[in-house]
Design a protein that fits this description.
The complex is a heterodimer of chains A (307) and B (352). Chain A is α/β, with parallel strands linked by helices and 307 residues long. In chain A, 40% of the residues lie in helices and 21% in strands. The N and C termini of chain A lie far apart (74 Å). The relative contact order of chain A is 0.15. Chain B is an alpha+beta fold and 352 residues long. In chain B, 25% of the residues lie in helices and 36% in strands. Chain B contains seven helices and 14 strands. Chain B has helices spanning 35-44, 58-63, 117-129, 141-144, 211-216, 245-267, 326-351, and strands at residues 15-18, 23-26, 32-33, 65-69, 76-80, 96-99, 109-110, 148-177, 180-204, 226-227, 237-239, 273-302, 305-312, 318-320. Classes of the chains: A alpha/beta (307), B alpha+beta (352). Chains A and B meet through helix 1, helix 7 and strand 8 of A and strand 8, strand 9, helix 5, helix 6 and helix 7 of B. Strand 8 of chain A pairs antiparallel with strand 9 of chain B, so a sheet runs across the interface.
Chain lengths: 307, 352
């Protein structure tokens, strides 16, 4: 009887596990991705600073280069040159601004990048790359190095930026994201999560997904960890209960001692010596440090670098 | 040999020892008699047995017992000559009559059953109720009915133990002053020499019953010891010893040494550490007595293992190893594990 119950429980467990695994890989989930439609007109350079006001030919040439990059990457590429007329933006403000501005131009959850180049003279200057859609997965873990590649062409904050330096920074940025795009291989074990929108960005079977639900691999990992913890709990439970089914002896031979007939001819505790040792008390101290954070707009993965 | 000593003086039916009443009772006319009353009645009756009939001689013991042998487990079961043993209390296989016991097996003392079978069954049921993972048939009425009243042969030893104990004890005190921590150590030479008396250390003389099981239902109250009479065996089984005094002596020595050690250790005050240099416990004199002690006994065979349970027939103290239905336990633990895993998966799904 108990063997039948065991088999039924184990069978139920296996069926549940199989159902969970199947739902993980084949369960339907809404893909919120807005696929790139090939329109590169949304890509380009937003020159709020008016850096290229006197050189519209150069600006047009650069913008064409950016749009070519966008066409190749099949995603929107926007480079924003911050103006000095606006209010002072903190790092977090820049983060929020970049995400919001991108969404306003290209729409939420579309594939694209938004490079914010802080050239208004703020010190220290803060450059930021905000990624949306598949760009979040492709560049998400290299954002800071990509920004640093771009702003390495620029002088330290407080110094005057020349046109050549800014042009090089933009071209360098386009080259870097193109290169990383070409080298990127879709990986089901890699995903990005935006904690503000709760969205996940990942590839599954070569297709890019934006979902509210965790990616299958993450859910599989949660399932595996839950299964391991469940197994450990079951094993601990088994041995704890089994130990209660052991023989417990409570014999105490001391009860048979006849104290009235027990006599010690010698029962002495003789003091021999005493000694005192001393040691210096060591004082110890410790210190710790804090960390930083990241903020983002709707469905964006972003990161920046100070100059 | 006359059997009048076991007969009811009123109706001549068999008298049986009633643990609840601590008297001999007649199932037919409901008469009850103390052992002393029966002695007196028998002594006054014409053609009755001699006055001290209840304190039987070795010859009478030989005449009034039946010995049954279990061909399955080898147990020897002793009954009075009016009782028939149909099954072995140990393995529950049929037994065969094998003859009489010699007078050398006659115990000198006995403690009668005080804890009735109903109480023993109730005690066992209460104990088993808290155990959810025993096999189902272990809790069955059929199994519980197998609880058997058994007089177990015990060797009881009174002994003197010569104690020789020496040690160095340390008392350590810590304190701090300024930027220094101080440790004061005081050393004492501890000596204990003398004699410890241990009376009534029991050791069962039955090899088939687990020694630890019998130790676990101790102690017995020796204040209720009576001279042995076959009348106490009425309605119960009894074992003949198969381990003699020499055989149980190592156990007695170990238990006497443990008892002495406890006396010595209790006499030593609180020390931070104790370095023992000499610790000897030598048994000097041992007086033996062979007696029958009452035990409600039950065995249960499960997965080729015999599980033994015993309840002190005098005090009701219970001991035994509950059999574990591993299949049942595994199912339960698997269910717990699956539930925990499912819960964690759902929580993980909410968090991520």
């Amino acid at each position: 009887m108990s063997k039948k119950i065991s088999l039924l429980v184990i069978l139920a467990g296996l069926v549940t596990a199989a159902a969970i695994v199947l739902s993980i890989f084949f369960g339907g989930q809404k893909n919120l991705r807005e696929e790139f439609d090939g329109d590169t007109s949304l890509s380009g350079i937003i020159d709020d600073y008016g850096f290229y006001d006197d050189d519209s030919e150069k600006f047009a040439e650069l913008e064409a280069y950016v749009r070519d990059t966008a066409e190749m990457l099949e995603m929107n590429v926007i480079i924003y040159l911050s103006g000095d007329s606006g209010y002072y933006r903190t790092d977090d403000d820049i983060d929020d601004y970049a995400a919001k501005r991108y969404d306003d131009i290209c729409g939420k959850d579309t594939d694209g990048v938004f490079l914010y180049l802080d050239i208004c003279g703020k010190s220290p200057a803060y450059d930021l790359l905000s990624c949306s859609g598949k760009a979040g997965v492709i560049y998400g873990r290299d954002i800071v190095s990509i920004v640093e590649t771009a702003n390495s062409e620029l002088p330290p904050s407080g110094h005057t930026i020349s046109e050549n330096q800014l042009t090089s920074a933009i071209i360098n940025f386009c080259v870097t994201i193109s290169s990383r795009y070409e080298n990127y291989k879709p990986n089901s074990f890699r995903w990005e999560h935006d904690k503000y929108t709760g969205k996940y960005f990942y590839y599954k079977n070569g297709e890019f997904y934006v979902t509210k639900k965790a990616p299958p691999v993450l859910r599989l990992i949660i399932f595996a960890i839950a299964s391991v913890i469940g197994a450990v709990i079951a094993i601990i439970c088994y041995y704890a209960i089994r130990s209660r089914y052991k023989f417990k002896t409570s014999a105490n031979p001391g009860i048979y001692v006849a104290h009235g007939e027990t006599h010690f001819t010698d029962s002495s505790d003789t003091f021999i010596r005493s000694y005192v040792t001393k040691r210096k008390i060591e004082s110890s101290s410790s210190s710790g440090g804090g960390g930083g954070g990241r903020s983002g707009g709707g469905g964006h993965i972003s990161g920046g670098s100070h100059r | 040999m006359n059997a009048a000593e076991y007969k009811c003086p009123n109706c001549n039916a068999d008298l049986k020892f009633d643990p609840e009443l601590q008297k001999l009772s007649c199932e037919y006319c409901l008469s009850v008699f103390t052992v002393e009353e029966i002695k007196k009645i028998c002594a006054e009756a014409e053609n009755s047995i001699p006055k001290d009939s209840m304190v039987q001689s070795q010859q009478e013991f030989e005449d009034h017992n039946q010995l049954y042998h279990c061909s399955s487990c080898g147990a020897d079961i002793m009954c009075d000559d009016r009782q028939t043993a149909l099954f072995c209390y140990y393995c529950h296989n049929p037994v065969i009559l094998s003859g009489k016991l010699s007078g050398a097996y006659k115990p000198s003392k006995i403690i009668g059953f005080k804890f009735t079978k109903d109480l023993a069954v109730e005690k066992f049921k209460n104990w088993i109720n808290g155990k959810k993972f025993v096999p189902d048939d272990f809790k069955s009425e059929q199994q519980i009915e197998k609880i058997t009243g058994l007089y177990v042969p015990f060797w009881i030893a009174d002994c003197k133990i010569n104690v020789n104990f020496s040690a160095i004890g340390k008392k350590i005190r810590h304190w701090s002053s300024g930027s220094y921590a101080y440790t004061e150590t005081k050393e004492f030479r501890i000596s204990r020499q003398g004699t410890v008396a241990a009376n009534g250390i029991p050791a069962d003389g039955e090899s088939k019953i687990d020694d630890l099981l019998m130790e676990s239902i101790e102690p017995f109250d020796y204040g209720e010891l009576k001279d042995f009479s076959m009348s106490y065996l009425s309605g119960f089984y009894a074992d003949k010893y198969d381990v003699d005094k020499a055989g149980v002596f190592p156990r007695i020595r170990t238990r006497a040494s443990e008892a002495s050690k406890k006396v010595v250790r209790d006499s030593i005050g609180s020390y931070s550490s104790l370095a023992v240099s000499v610790e000897q416990y030598n048994i000097m004199n041992t007086d033996w007595e062979y007696m029958m002690l009452p035990v409600w006994f039950m065995t249960y065979r499960y997965n080729d293992t015999v599980y033994e349970f015993a309840i002190n027939g005098q005090t009701g103290k219970l001991a035994g190893t509950p059999p574990l239905d591993k299949g049942k336990l595994k199912s339960f633990c698997a269910a717990i594990g699956i539930a925990a895993a499912a819960g964690l998966y759902l929580i993980g799904g909410v968090i991520f």
